[in-house]
Known about the structure:
3-stranded antiparallel sheet, 65% helix, elongated, Herpes Virus-1, single chain, zinc ion binding, zinc-finger, ligase activity, mainly alpha, SUMO ligase activity, 2 domains
Amino acid sequence: xxxxDINSVENxxxxxxxxxxxxxxxxxxxxxxVNQIKREKPENIPDLRHLVNEKFTxxxxxxxxxxxxxxxxxxxxKDQLKEMRKQCKxxxxxxxxFDEAIEQIDEDIAVTQSQMNFICPITQVEMKRPVRxxxxxxxxxxxxxxxxxxxxxxxxxxxxxxxxxxxxxDVKESDLVPDEALKRAIDSQNKQ
Length: 192
C-alpha cells in the first residue's frame, strides 16, 4: 500500500514537471515572439497568437521523458524519498534488537496513560465521579465541570474543553454522561 502511495505521489510529481515544462516553453515562445516583433518592427502587426503557437509547438516537439526527470522539484522529491528510505532502514536495523525493551516501554506507557486518565484536567486530582464528554470523548470530575459550565452560562460565555489540544469550544451539560467504566477502573486501581 505504501509503494502504491509513493508511486501515486511520484506520478503527480512527473505531471507537475510536465506542466512546469509546458509553462516554461509557452513563456519562452511568448518572449521570443515579443523580441522578434521588436527587432523586425513590421508595418502590419502579424497574428501574434499564431507566431507564439508556432514557437511553442517547436519547443514542445523537442520534449523527451528524460526532461521531466531533470526537473528541479522532481529531483528534490526523489532525493527526499531516498533519504527517508535510508532513515527508515537505519531505524529498523537499530531497533530490531530492542523489541523486548520497546514492548516493556509500551506497557509502562499504557499503565502511566491509564493512571493519567484518572486525573481530572480541571482539578488535577483523581476523579471520584467521572463524566465523559459525548462530543470529544474527554473525561472530567462531574462536580468540577458542572460548576464551570454553570458559571460560564451565567456570564453568557461558552466553555471550551479544558483538555489541552481539544477543539471542542462549547461544552454543555447535555454533552456529559457518567463514565461507569472509568469509575470501575479507578475503584479497582484504588483497591489494589
